Each structure stands twice: as structure tokens, then as C-alpha cells.
Amino acid sequence: MNIALIAHDRKKGDLVRFVTAYLPVFEKHSLFATGTTGKRIQEATGLKVHRFQSGPLGGDQEIGAMIAKNEMDLVIFFRDPLTAQPHEPDITALMRLCDVYNVPLATNMGTAEVLIRGLASGAMDWRHLLQGKRLEGLLDKEKGNGKRDGT
Ligand SMILES: O=C(CO)COP(=O)(O)O
Predict the structure, then answer these.
(1) Domains defined for the chain, CATH in brackets
(2) Is the ipTM here above 0.85?
(3) Which of 5, 8, 19 to mutate to test the pocket of ligand 1 (most atoms within 8 A of CB)?
(4) Distance CA 75, CA 112 (A)
(5) Which of 26, 58, 104, 109 is deepest in the core (most CB within 10 A)?
(6) Is the whole-model pTM more than 0.90?
(7) Residues classed as catalytic
(8) Which pLDDT band, with edges at 50, 70 and 90, does 21 fall under?
(9) What is the mean pLDDT of residues 51-62?
């Protein structure tokens, strides 16, 4: 599964501790993160993390683009509800896309616990069905392109 990890500055320590606690789960999946969050997680855990731009520079939007392409299976986003963010519209857009595409989203540690335990016990295997569809879609597209190219 593809998992997005994002945390605002005052929540980064919590996310690093969370990922460390569930290391055996996270190391079985592909991890993506906004810039600074990803760096902190990599440094603390040694996990391989694909890092996008920092959140205020477009990282939330890059993760949103993956959601819109059905390439993200789970989002863990430890938001700071007590601090105004300069890129609030990007944050809202990311969460909205999770709802549009039915992507499980945890915005706090309590929900993240439930999601990660669910992930570990196979409760998210239904996402594989979508991944199958994703693959079919890509193959169909390739076939279509082939026809147009005359190849
Ligand atoms: O701002 C963020 C999410 O909205 C997080 O970005 P960083 O991980 O780069 O700090």
C-alpha cells in the first residue's frame, strides 16, 4: 500500500514516535511524505520515504495529485489545529480529495492507531480491488493509445 505521512511542526515529534512504534507495519509499505516530515522520519527510523516538497511549498498538493490518480491508499496527517498555516487552502484540498476518493485519512493519533492496526490485520485489503482497476485503466489507456498511433 502507498501511505502518506504528513505532520505540522508541533506534531512532527508525535508522528516520528508513532512511525517508530509501528515500524514493523510501516516497513512493509511504500511511504510518501511532505519534505520536512519525510526527512524527520527518515532520520529517526532509517525507513525509505519518498519526499515531496515541503507543505507550504506545494507538498500537500503533490500528495493530493496522487490521491486524485488513486495512487494513495492511506493518509496519516497529524494536523496542528491550534496554529494558522499559510497554506490552509492546500490542506483543505488534500482532505477534500480523501473524501472524494474514499481514501482513509487520520488527522490525529487516536484515529491513526485504529487505521494502522486495521491495515496490519488486513482490513484495508479492499484497496487492492481499486489497484486492480487502476492497472486495468492503465492497460486500457495503453491499448487506446496504441490504436491512435496505429501500432
Ligand atoms: O505543512 C505541512 C502539511 O500541511 C507539512 O510540511 P513539512 O513536512 O514540509 O513540514
Answers:
(1) 2-125 (3.40.50.1380)
(2) yes
(3) 8
(4) 9
(5) 26
(6) no
(7) 60
(8) very high
(9) 98
